[in-house]
Amino acid sequence: MPDVFFYSYLYLPAPEGHPLFSNVEALTKANSALLRNFLGALPLSDLHPKRILLQTGAKNYGIHLGRVRLPSIESDPQPQHLEIQFYFPQEEMLFHYCKDHSETSWNVVMPDWIIGSTNNAQMNGLHPFAIYAAVSAKRKLPLAFPSNWSSWQAEQQHSTARLTGYLSEWIVLEPKTANARFNAQDTSPLTLDRFFEELTRWFGVEAGVTPPSDDDKHMLAVTSAGGASSPMGYGPPRTMKSSFHLTTWGREPENQTAWRELMHESNGKLKHDPFEDVEGNFAFGDILLHRVGGLSMNKARRLGWTGFVDTLEAVFEMYEEMGPEGLGMLPGMKIGEPKPLV
What we know:
Oligomer: single chain
Shape: globular
Radius of gyration: 21 Å
Strand content: 5-15%
């Protein structure tokens, strides 16, 4: 019997003036239908999978809503009472299907920020920073960090697409992992401090990096829910501070002009103009700046998983693939290889 990997996702932009993912009911309706139709087609096609793996993500823990327990472990309760989230009805459909088809078992894999090259990078939180670095280099400006010291030094985790694929393959082939959820991340923590330092080398920002200001009192602030309205169910709200937003930076004519000059200088190899849709192409960078969380890999490790990726090397590889000799999404980098996190 075959194994099935379900990765489909339909992103619907929020109405103008509303935050990303605020259209939760529309997202839930559309993405629930994708899986419902797929599962309904399996018996019609006389297909009887041994295992069905559904990929969802770290929003399963409610990290986009407020404070979560850290590190997030698969047995943590899902905050289904706080928000409609299409992950939850998708899981219920999968569980119901496997109950009705006893020959089929299920898995759910939950990656963090996904690192992978694509010609539609609107949900790629690292793509905007390459654009920011390339334009800063072109304008001979320093790479100013857009947030505070908490964001600068916080360890972030990412999930390289290839490693998540290997993990998913291992999960469906391992008998001990049937009917279980698994986190997916590189186990290579990366701070924005180290990331910005490398960005200046990769894209030739000769003016270097401007670190955060020591005084964040006058920064723009966004506050998440706290207390009983947070996924933890208690504690103060989280406050995310920014000296400027990448979406605001993306609307500045000087930056748009610099990018189009880079496009012209590439002789047609740099094809993508992210400034045609600033909100779509830069908003996820603003979110990534304030990413706080951590997915534990203990569960997979205890069952025998040993996969690892150096996240910084993975980001470099992604940017290469999105460069002028690849997808034409980014200008070429100035060096041949990154510094590994060792």
